[in-house]
Amino acid sequence: MTANEQTASDSSRVLFIGNSQFEVWDIPGMVEELSQSGRRLLCKGSLMGGSWLQTHLESSTTLDTLETGNWDMVVLQEHYRAPEDEYSRSKFFAAGSALCEKIVKISAIPVLYASPNVEDSGTDGFTAIHSVNLELARKLDIALAGAGAACLRARKKMPKLDLYNKDRRHPNCKASYIGACVLYATLTRQSPIGLPNNCGKGVISKDEAIQFETAAWEEYQATNAAV
Prior knowledge:
The structure is a single chain. The protein has helices spanning about 20-25, 25-35, 55, 60-70, 85-105, 120-140, 145-155, 175-190, 205-225; strands at about 10-20, 40-45, 75, 110-115, 145. The chain is of the alpha/beta class. It has one domain (about 10-225): SGNH hydrolase (Rossmann fold, 3-Layer(aba) Sandwich).
């Protein structure tokens, strides 16, 4: 059985390795909140602002957390500049592959997360980060949570949807919620549509939540059918 064919248990420990794209709106916390009424996920982050996966591969703190946490699944999020040039792509592929090897060695399931991109990259930036992550996911035969692609799905139905924080370089609460829903679907293989939760309370309306959850579920199904 490959890593992509395995399923999470009823209660699973999940480590998130990445940078501020996870941190600003606490996406690991959102995923755990979503799981309260579904398949329970206990989430923790090993996050460093501006970091690449290579940074984590060289970090004793991240490696100690990885090796001693008794994780069931580990989510890897690379820097948005990974598809920028061949050097960056190669750096991502090497570090991502090395971390996945370590994850499998501790009997956990690796998952890739393709984040939304910065505003000035436009739609092409979202597609580029998704594509480079999908390429590695196919190579390693692991699941991919395509948050950026899910955001673009949501924006097709809601053209005025703003996806960015004030700095225009990080996802806002709505984009982070979409990412959390894709992650929930990827980690549990269950639909996030209609899950009761307090994520984004006061920022995301009920109607918006359903549209975001639907976009996330559709993207999960489309992306992982392609892996």
